[in-house]
Inverse folding.
């Protein structure tokens, strides 16, 4: 008798399941009557949607967060955002370290996959730094928010500040201030600056954090602080992030300059800060200081591109990621110039990195296209709104042209699934569902040239 092989889930499959279980538990809690501000249970589909958008740190909502949920419901949402931003694997590992329990090889593999790291060296120290760094930044952000929100909301401003800080750092874009997000604070420099900084710090990636701190330490020791001391990933992440924010801000400023529905009637300074906030928030954050449906088509197109690129690897942001897009662009440029390999900052990009970038991008774009087509099939959205919603959900951004609240049952299910796929990562999903054995990988099919272009 042939003994059946016991199914052992891969680390990537465990990560996918951990997010799914978190969503289901969160939806069950949010479906309880005392999670609702009215005391009456919300429909389960809306509870599921809210749990998904929180855990996947997206920000699209079918019901207004500020008026729908009780304090208990808001606490559940905040916990889901924090778990989603850091990952359940990271939080569980942190609890193990807090209880002085050693991490086995399986735990280390889970952390490595959760953060998409290339090595298991120093993982315990990495987790500690991630948890401490996250809490420190969110704490500082909350204190700065209190300078505005306590005078405006009294004691409730403390809770709003904490909620907003965690949501901004985790790039969730969910707030409990008003139903129109941060529109009432569109011209407040402190709120703009704090929110933008938290979004950028969360989206730039932890690896970049440690790299910059290492450089600053070198400077404090009297050594020269120069860009060349940064790792290649940090150079790419920082330069692409800065370029996208700058270019996006300038284009939105130009396209919206005379638009009375957005920034047309504002002062020059306010036009600049609102334009650049829009450029920052599209990098998977989802807070809005202007109604997205009032943007010109040109600004909407720019926003879609920024949303698709997203943040950087090993951070709280989604999207295709800055490094992925940079690798793709340089690889295409190298092919056009008939070079053997792509280079960035005088460093050759490995063929494996190029393959991963192509796979991740194709998977991301496939999800966007399928989601867009399905949304259009419902008849509930125009082409522009459907594309905007689909890219926002896949890239876990959370900006909407006021389409989400009007979605029917099928539309909500489409976006719910899209947000989940977008958060767990297209490439992780592909690996989990279609992994090959080592023997299969050794098989090589015949090679044949085909015409391209």
């Amino acid at each position: 008798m042939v003994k059946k092989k016991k199914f052992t889930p891969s680390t990537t499959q465990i990560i996918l399941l951990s997010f799914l279980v978190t969503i289901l538990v969160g939806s069950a809690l949010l479906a309880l009557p005392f999670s609702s501000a009215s005391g009456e249970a919300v429909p389960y589909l809306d509870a599921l949607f809210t749990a998904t958008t929180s855990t996947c740190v997206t920000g699209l909502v079918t019901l207004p967060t500020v008026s729908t949920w009780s304090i208990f419901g808001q606490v559940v949402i905040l916990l889901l955002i924090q778990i989603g931003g850091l990952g359940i694997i990271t939080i569980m590992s942190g609890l193990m370290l807090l209880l002085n329990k050693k991490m086995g090889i399986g735990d280390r593999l889970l952390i490595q996959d959760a953060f998409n790291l290339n090595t298991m060296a120093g993982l315990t120290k990495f987790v500690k730094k991630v948890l401490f760094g996250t809490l420190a930044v969110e704490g500082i952000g909350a204190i700065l928010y209190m300078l505005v929100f306590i005078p405006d909301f009294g004691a409730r401003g403390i809770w709003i500040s904490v909620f907003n800080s965690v949501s901004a750092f985790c790039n969730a874009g969910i707030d409990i201030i008003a139903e129109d997000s941060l529109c009432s604070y569109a011209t407040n420099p402190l709120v703009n600056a704090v929110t933008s900084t938290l979004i950028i710090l969360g989206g730039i990636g932890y690896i970049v954090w440690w790299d910059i701190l290492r450089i600053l330490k070198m400077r404090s020791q009297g050594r020269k602080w120069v860009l060349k001391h940064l790792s290649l990933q940090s150079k790419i992440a920082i330069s692409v992030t800065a370029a996208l924010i700058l270019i996006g801000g300038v284009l939105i400023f130009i396209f919206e300059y005379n638009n009375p529905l957005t920034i047309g009637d504002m002062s020059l300074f306010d036009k600049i800060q609102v334009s650049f906030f829009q450029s920052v928030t599209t990098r998977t954050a989802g807070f809005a200081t202007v109604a997205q449906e009032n943007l010109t088509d040109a600004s909407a197109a720019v926003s879609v591109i920024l949303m698709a690129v997203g943040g950087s690897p090993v951070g709280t942001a989604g999207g295709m990621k800055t490094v992925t897009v940079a690798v793709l662009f340089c690889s295409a440029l190298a092919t056009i110039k008939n070079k053997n390999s792509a280079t960035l900052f005088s460093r050759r990009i490995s063929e494996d990195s190029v393959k991963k970038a192509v796979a991740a991008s194709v998977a991301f774009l496939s999800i966007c296209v399928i989601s867009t087509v399905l949304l259009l099939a419902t008849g509930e959205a125009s082409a522009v709104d459907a594309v905007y919603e689909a890219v926002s959900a896949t890239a876990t951004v959370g900006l909407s042209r006021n389409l989400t609240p009007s979605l029917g049952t099928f539309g909500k299910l489409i976006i719910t699934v899209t947000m989940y796929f977008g958060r767990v990562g297209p490439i992780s999903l592909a690996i989990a569902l279609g992994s090959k054995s080592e023997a299969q990988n050794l098989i090589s099919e015949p090679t044949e040239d085909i015409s391209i272009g």
About this structure: Strands lie at 343-344, 347-348.
